Amino acid sequence: FSGTILVHEGVSKYYPYMLSIAGMFFLSIAVMFTTLHLDMKNAERAGKYAEEAVKLAEKCEDKDFRSQIFAVCSSIFIKQEKFSLAKTYLTKAAAIAHDSGQTDAELSSRSYYLLALFRSGASSDEINTYMDETQKLTQKVQSTMTLVVFYQIQFIIRQAQKDYAGAIETAGNILHLPNIGDYPFLLYDIYNN
From CA 105, how far away is CA 163, in angstroms rounded? Predict the structure, then answer.
């Protein structure tokens, strides 16, 4: 490799694209390090990589990729009880998904935001208002697992609020999802809670 191809006139017009791809690869590596450290039970390092990844993602031109990074890193922030940081980036991820018409991604981000609200001790009124707004998206979502995540979080919240009728309704929603029989571990959870 002599490098002369990089100065060829026909290739130079692709520099911005190649730079963008290189940035996305670097960002993907940062996220991989985040999850690796989390798997290794090194939450502090995982948190540092997650914080670096969201800063880098802010500069990423691919909005959908940015939204994914925000959502993935926010799950790390929730685990570390950095709820304010999680809510900030989940709000951004949901807005990007909404603007892109990606209802599944929007519901996913809003579901984890709901979890962050719950775990951060937000009021029942705030949680229930957000949950009701978020539930409206379930009619437009295609992914069974995205719906399961929302309903599991909703179930946990309703149980904690001692809204047992609501929790039973939520369990019923899960049981009526398409292809739910393909997920026996979910059925086990529902029947044992």
Answer: 27
